[in-house]
Design goal:
about 5% strand; single chain; about 60% helix; 13 helices; alpha/beta; four-stranded mixed sheet; globular
Length: about 270
């Protein structure tokens, strides 16, 4: 039995030369106008190792050709014709990322470096899926997971979304991304939490496996069900069920009754101290 198990392990290892290994980050080529030369130098100093999460989530064994990063001044025609809440975008077909540095701190990004990670992640995910379409919520949520850990702002936005709007189905979530700044931010907060929950339940390697199957011709729903062992709708329902706990408590914790209870408790403590 020990011999058989050792043989199986050896064959599995030999058949998966990249198992447990993360491909090196992609090469970035920075291009900027003279007015943003200092910003370009700053971007060039960003550690390439900070792209490792995006590479790992993509599941790529090789990250592919260099990615061009274009820094766009706010007074340019492109910036003027792009909605002000959009701080960057990726064009996977052209291997290109476009960043508006002056908008880098606009939610969901918190800095120019996190914005860069986010858009580079989109390129890598598109390469892993071989250009096949992905649901916007999955693509954006996965890019946010690659960009940075979830923060208090993400959790607060998600909580208030649940209080004000309740559970949002996937088709409506897709629509929110194109409905203006407020709806866009709400969509990012939900997508971020939803995809992080999927990664928590099914493991971070599941993302790359889903992308690979989509690249092989599977629909996203079929790819997800194959990797996760459950339909995506079941996973989404479980996510919203977990959020309803906070949906029940937040109105109470932020309401006048709780605040008066807190004030009374503090007063009693001060008297007894």
């Amino acid at each position: 039995m020990r011999v058989c198990l050792a043989l199986v392990a050896t064959l599995a290892s030999a058949g998966s030369p990249n198992a447990g290994q993360v491909a090196p980050p992609p090469t970035l080529r920075i291009d900027a106008p003279a007015s943003l030369e200092a910003v370009a130098q700053q971007v060039q100093r960003f550690p390439a190792s900070h792209l490792a999460t995006a590479v790992a989530l993509s599941g790529l064994a090789s990250t592919g050709p260099p990615i061009d990063v274009l820094l766009i001044a706010e007074n340019s025609d492109l910036a003027q014709n792009t909605p002000p809440w959009i701080s960057g975008f990726a064009d996977a077909k052209r291997n290109m990322v476009v960043l508006f540095p002056s908008r880098a701190r606009s939610y969901p990004s918190s800095s120019l470096e996190t914005l860069l990670r986010h858009e580079v992640a989109h390129i890598l995910f598109a390469r892993a899926a071989r250009g096949q379409p992905l649901p916007r919520w999955f693509d954006e949520g996965l890019a946010l997971a690659a960009e940075r850990p979830a923060g208090l702002g993400d959790r607060s936005r998600l909580a208030w979304t649940l209080v004000r709007h309740g559970a949002i189905p996937l088709n409506e979530l897709e629509r929110l991304f194109g409905e203006g700044q407020a709806a866009n931010r709400r969509a990012y907060a939900i997508a971020s939490a939803l995809v992080r929950e999927l990664l928590r339940v099914h493991g971070e390697t599941a993302a790359g496996q889903v992308l690979s199957l989509v690249g092989g011709g599977h629909t996203f729903s079929a790819a997800f069900a194959t990797v996760a062992g459950e339909p995506v709708q079941v996973a989404v329902s479980r996510f919203w069920n977990r959020q309803r706990f906070w949906g029940r408590w937040i109105p109470f914790l932020t309401g006048p009754a709780f605040l008066w209870m807190l004030i009374t408790a503090l007063a009693l403590y001060a008297i007894s101290a």
